[in-house]
Amino acid sequence: AEIQKFQLRKLKETVAWVYERVPFYRQKLDEKGVKPNSIKSLEDIARLSFTVKNDLRDNYPFGLCAVPLTEVVRVHASSGTTGKPITGPYTADDLNDWTDCMARNLWAAGVRPDDIAQNAYGHGLFTGGLGFHQGLSRIGCTLVPTSSGLTERQITLMKDFGATALFCTPSYALTIAERAEELKVDIRTLPLRVGVFGAEPWSTAMRLEIEERMGIKAHEAYGLTELCGPGVGFDCVAQDGLHINEDHFLAEIIDPQTYEVLPLGEKGELVFTSLQRRAMPMLRYRTKDITRLRREKCACGRTFIKMDKIFGRSDDMLIISGVNVFPSQIESLLLEIPEVEPQYRLVVRKKGYLDQLTVQVEGKKEIYEAGPEKRLEVAAKVSGHIKGNMGIGVDVEIVEAKFINRSEGKALRVVDERPKQFR
Ligand code: ADP
Ligand code: ZN
Q1: pLDDT band at 82 (very low <50, low <70, confident <90, very high)
Q2: I need a surface site. Which of 32, 76, 205, 329 has the fewest CB within 10 A?
Q3: Rounded distance, CA 364 to CA 207, Å?
């Protein structure tokens, strides 16, 4: 109840802040007949319009800024996974809040001042590198800012410095694990004990795979440039869903087709309103990320609302034989087949009027080398497993080792080969 009282006060302040300072928001609020003092309860948020990525693109780079640039001390930009980048400006207070959010995230994962922290998120415009950097500095870890890439050197430094904690995308963690195995370095015998991974969807099966291969606990960070970067949501010792820093971000779930707000517990698109940002506040930003919210007593003792692990982003959702398919569902199933590596991509093609999905997955070395018959047998096993669990028919190609590009940041899972007009 106290959190909600706090949220209402901050929501009112945020609406007033943007109404006075950002023409884009003022116009949207006027269209809806909403004045800052019309917000009387948290439910009144439903009276505000949504903000979408295109609004940010149309106002690129600083059109949605609520403060003069002299008060902006940092600008990040999104990685542009789905098109033209968008900007994220911060005031000094915004940076401070973001740092707090990241420190909470890391602390919940068990990161402590005596950790030797290898930060292998890309450092630069991407919010991952510097976001983790700030949070780790606030905790007071021994920080090693390796940034991403140069995988062999990552492993050498991990060994030489005795890193106890690793930070990067889950797909890069897997790349590091694989390279270490090739170099005959057993990460499980090194001091490394924990990782905080995020910035892209990954299945629970992938988390278990990384934990097993590195001999660590793998925790999670969720966030987006539009809100600050990582530090919006984070998991805890329970490893069952992510807490949302809800004193900073008010979460809603909507039906992405009807825009109707869904009750707690229903799956849909995550929408966020920032409650304390000054440089670029967000009113009802549609993330395109699909999940569910739950308010429950968590084993860790935190009371912040929780969301399920992100199923995927709606941009990556495929519709195969009328069934909605997220790459992470296929990923979970592939990880259950011992004959293949967790390295895959999904290729979408047009077959007549229908979308046809081809799953390309690397066979284990001995499987691939056993010849075409064995490969066909394993391909049939994989497609049978997918059919049995998801009810969809897919083509499966068992490809050779390293056919799939190794990720150093966000992995590319979906390749769309359909003619433009069908995408
Ligand atoms: P881009 O849209 O260019 O990738 P960002 O770097 O801001 O830009 O990425 C934010 C997006 O990354 C989120 O909206 C979400 O789709 C994805 N993401 C971030 N963290 C996670 C996570 N822990 N699990 C799943 N998806 C995540
Ligand atoms: Zn918890």
Answers
A1: low
A2: 32
A3: 20
